Every structure is written in C-alpha cells, then in structure tokens.
Fold:
Amino acid sequence: MKLIFAPIIVLTGLPLFAAEDLSKPIEALRSVKKEGEGNEAAGKAWQAIVKADAANLAEVLKGMNGANPLAENWLRAAVGVIADEALKAKKMPVDALVAFLKDTANSPGARVVAFDLIQRADAKLAEDLTPTLLNDVSSDLRRHPVAKLIEAGDAAVEKKNTDAAIAAYQKGLGGARDEDQIKALAKKLRDLGQTVDLPSHFGFLMSWKMIAPFSNADRGGFDTVYPPEKELKFDASYEGKGKAAKWVDFTSKDEYGKIDFNKPFGMEKSVVGYAATDFLSTEDRAAEIRIGCKNGWKVWLNGELLFARDEYHRGAKLDQYKLPCQLKKGKNTILVKCCQNEQTEQWTVEWEFQLRVCDATGTAIVAAK
Amino acid sequence: MCLTAGVAKADWLQFRGPNAAAVSTEAKAPAEELKIAWTADLPGRGLSAPIVVGDKVFVTCSSGPGQETLHVFCFNAKDGSKRWERAMRATGRTMSHNKTCVAANTPCSDGDRVFALFSSNDLFAFDLDGNLLWLRGLTFDYPNASNSLGMSQSPVVIDGTLVVQSENDSESFAAGLDVATGRNKWKLERPKAANWTSATLWKGVAALQSSKGILGVDPATGKTVWNYEDGASTIPSSVVHGDLLYAVSKGITALSPEKGSVTQLWRNEKLNPGTASPLVLGDHLYVVNGAGVLIKASAKNGDESWKLRLKGPFSGSPVAAGKRIYIVSERGSFQSIDPDAPEGKVVQEIELKETVLTTPAISDGAIYVRSDAKLWKLQ
Structure:
C-alpha cells in the first residue's frame, strides 16, 4: 500500500504526512508523565513528527492544548525543527499560524510559539497583530503590545504631548501583567503626576489577622502543628515562644503587599507566625494564589494545604510560587504559616510574605464587596 | 591519568573536561600566541561552559524576561557556524540571583548524546544531530527541588548513567539516570543545604560534594563506595589527579579514597579557593583564591611555591593544557599563565570585552570561551 500511495502524495503536492497521521505520535508525546514515564515512546514519536511537512505545524501546535509542561516541551522542540525547515524552504504556513494565534481556545503556550513563528516568517505581520494582544489570556503575548505602548508614551513625552503619553502608559498598564513592565509604567505615570494603585492592580491581600510567636527551634516549627492549623479562633490566646501568642489585626501599607511579621511582633528569630484572611469570591472558579516569601511557609485554602516550602533567605520575588486552586463562591479562608529561622545576618531579618489572588494570566481577581 | 602520554585529539565532554579535572589530555597544546579564530552570537545568558564533541561545540543559554526560554546550540568547531538550535521552556522555577541565570549548569556528553541540565531542573537529552531523545522536568517530578538563588551543579555521565544533582535547602537529591531513557536508576536523598558544586570522577566513582563532605557513589547503583565526612565547600568543586582526590575542604585536603574508607594525606588551610575550582598540573596544585591570586603548591604535601596576582575577579575556573593554565576574569580578561616561570607569569592576555562568568573548554588545540552574548574560539 505504501509503495503505491507514496507517489500519489508527491504528485499531488500534498504534505508527506497528512495531519491525521500525526495523531498517534502526538498522543505519544502527550502521554509523557513524571520521572521519565513515556520517554521511550515519545523519542520515537518525536522522530516521526519532525519529518512532517510544515503544513502540519498548526496541528502539532494543537497537540499542546491541555498537555502537561513536559509534553509541551516535546512538542515545542518538534515545532522548532519543522519551523526551521519551513523557513529555509519559505513554506511557513503563516495563515494557519495566524488563525491558530487568534483562536484563544488554543493553549497560551502554543499561541506564544505560533506568534514567534509568525515573527520569524513575517515581522511586519507580527507587528500588525501586536495591538490585538493587549488583553490576551497569555501574559507573554501581552508583553509585545505593552512594550509598544511604552515606546509610544516615551515618544509622546519627547514631543511634550503629556496627555498622549498618559493615555499610552495607562493603556499599557491596563494590559501589563509582568512586574518589570508594571513597575516601569507606574514610574512613568507617577512622573507625570498620575496616581497608580499597585496593590489593586496586582490584587495583593492587604488585611490579615496575624498570630505569633510560636517556636521554630532547630527549624522544627515548620512541621509542628500549632493551634491555628487546627482552629481559627481569633479571640484565643496560646502558649508561645517566651510569651503568649495572640491574634492581632494587620493591614499592610506596602504597595507590594508585604505582610511583615516583624512589625506587630518584633524582630524575633526561630519563630513561627500565622496569618489568616478571608477572600470573598463572586463565583466558583479556578484561580491561582501567588506568594512571594523568603522564609519557610505553608499555605492552606479552606483548610486544604496547597504547598509547603522550607527554604530560608535565598530570595523572594513577586509571584515566586504559583499555586493553582479552586475558589468557591462566597468566603474562602486563606491561612499562611511563615517561619523565621535562627540566622542572624543582616539579610535574614525579613519575616514576611506577599500574596495575591489572580487568574492564570496574572490578572487580579476582584473580591466581592 | 597520565598527562605525558596525551592523545592526538580529545573531546571536552563536561564541566572541566576529561575526568572533570580541568586539564586537556591532548598531546597537542594550544598555540603559544592565541588569537580569536571566530565569534558566534548567542541569544541569551549563560554561566554554563561550552563542551566539545568531535567537530561540534555545544552551549546552552537562557533568555526571556524571566529566563524561561532554554536554548541548546550546536556550532561547527571549524568556523562557528550554527548546525542546530533547540528552544524549550522551563517547567521548573527560574528565579535566581542576578549574577547567575538559568543556563548555569554545564552540559555533558557520552560522545553520542548531549545532556543539557538547567537551573530550572529541566533536563534534555539530544543526539549530536539535535534529535530530542528524552527529557525530564526534575522540579515537575519533585516539586520542592529548587533554589531561589539558582542552581549550577553540572551533570556527569559514567558508563551509561547520567549523574545529576539538585541539592538545595528543601527537596535535595542526587540521581542516576539511564542515558537511553532518562528514567531513574537510583535516587539518593542529599543534605538539605544549597550546593553549587559539581561531581568529580574518581576511578569510575561519582564523588558528590556537599557541606557535609564528599560521598563516593557507584554510578550504576548509587550505593556508597566511600564517604569523607569532614565538610567541604558548596561553591568550588574538588579535583581528582591520579589516585588522589584534592578536596576543597578546610582549604585543600588531599585524600586517598579506598573502598569503604578515606585516608587524609595532607591539609593546607591556606589554600582557599574563592569561586574557582582548583586543578592539578603535573606535580602541582593550583588554586585561585577569593582575591584573584593564583597559588601554586605541591600536590605531594601542599607546600606553597609562589603566589601570582591575576586580573580578577573570577567566577569561572582555570583549565590547563600542555604547560599553560588558562582563566578568564569576570571582566573578560583571558589570561594565559606559564606556571613553570619562577614566580609564575601571565604570558598573554586577550581582552574579550564582555562579562565572562564561566570556565573555558579545550579541544583540538583550541580554547572555547562564552559570555552572555558570545562564544569565542581562541586558537
């Protein structure tokens, strides 16, 4: 059959591998799991996919939809090989890639790859598409139009057209989801006399109930179940490290939402603190709790442990850890355990975290009133 | 490891080359007067060193606003033209100290495959033509395996096992992976402490260094062969020469490991490597301290011969070939040193005019150096 069929393919100019022929190898790549499970089959499947004609690029990209990050990388690498050949042969299927990009049902990661391929094949077309990506579900794709708006604002400043600059920067800030761009835009707007509410933009949770100090001697407090992990009674008092541990109200004034235990409890060492707050969701929905913290920490949502991390003083940043979760309509209780260790160097003073609730793009989810 | 019986041409297959000892085994040394033969542009950052397999030079980079894009490049050694490039995306955490980046671990090769590990714990195996053979996401597998300052432990490959380390404050481990499939042959819990050192090879044993000491493991099984427990550095890596292991431990401690035991031969606490790892050339040990001073000492007893101030500071380690030691400063000053001169002597300097935080590679009489933007061949 193959011997008869192959010449027909050549004569008709059809791709060497029709899209449907790739379904099995794509599925093999999508089947890879933790600890290398599926690698053997994926390696063979990858070899088959990279031989596919460029006309199949969108189909291979589609394989990334709903795939785990490992499978995405198998497919991403395969797309790269096919695209390299397509560029050399000037056969990049740009129309199909544009259609793929525009269909937001496709996965953000795959659409980012599609945009990159469009850029490589037709930079002018990519530039024309850029403004349409300002409110995209992919934060990576948003970077392009935000960068353009920053350029436009800067150009307006040069021409002393302040209104145009403010408009460009504000539009950019509306779309920006990455910290570097948000910081840059906030500074530019403030330099022009504008007010920027960063806590609201990011969706930091600013008001918490906090309790401390419990002991973290020998870093054993990380795994010790103290009363706040069993009950949240905000009028209760417990035996703490050298003094009673009581709940206090704390509202952060930091525009990056830092919840600093040192402020209400003093600069303690080898201690554990807890912070609790309620987030009112307007609906049942998927969300991400994103935390930045350089202390040991655990986060619970409605009593379910989302993640625990026992690293101390190696650095913190915005969205350092992204914890996918499911919010329920109404009250959602978030509990954070924050552990300070015994180190005494100046750079180990911090006993704090920042936390926000957002969607997978990084857009703040606004709490119900 | 007999240096005098060098081979005509040798690959440089891992961090610090043959046996991770930083000394070329080639009979032909690089030219006395080196020049830049070619320069290739790189699209991203990297502290990883190049490796050389035959006529191919491999190098990794990371790019993007959060260093999430992971690149593996293959260049022609002859002219620096690109043979292939693969770009993937980090599945693990990409946060690191500003000085380092996600492409910090040097790749390694068994001659048929290239294994590229990144600080995000993403690991890719390619054949020499760029076909993806397998991949792993070690933080995807073990979610607390990461270091917010970044990681840099370079893998080594021994007799069909790829030994990888992901040693950090939390989920700290080393593992032996099947080179053909990437599946675990074994996995060891390691001390819970940040560690940037790379494994060295002692007579077929993988020597895993940490703050606790150095553990010699059978690469096929992960079982302990010997264990030195008197502490060791977590930044510069130790070096093997002949039957001895020169441990970066309380200065330098010369060790004679045996099955089940380790004998200490000598210790010199004044031989304190800074970030750079030491090397042994002939009968002498060379250490670059934190002040950028190269110290020559006897490999037999640790006695110092001389000190030579170099143009530092250094993040990369020295390498050697023939009768020369080569090192590149953070400011891009490539320095060729004659260690046989009475007080040591810098015999050539080449200003690369870029920040260089990595270790050179040597193959076929040429030296390869990379920065965040360029790869150079010096010949």
Summary: Chain A touches chain B at residues 32, 34-37, 39-40, 42-43, 46-47, 50, 68-70, 72-74, 76-78, 80-81, 84, 109, 143, 178, 180, 294, 307-312, 314-317, 320-321 (CB under 8 Å). Chain A has 13 helices and eleven strands.
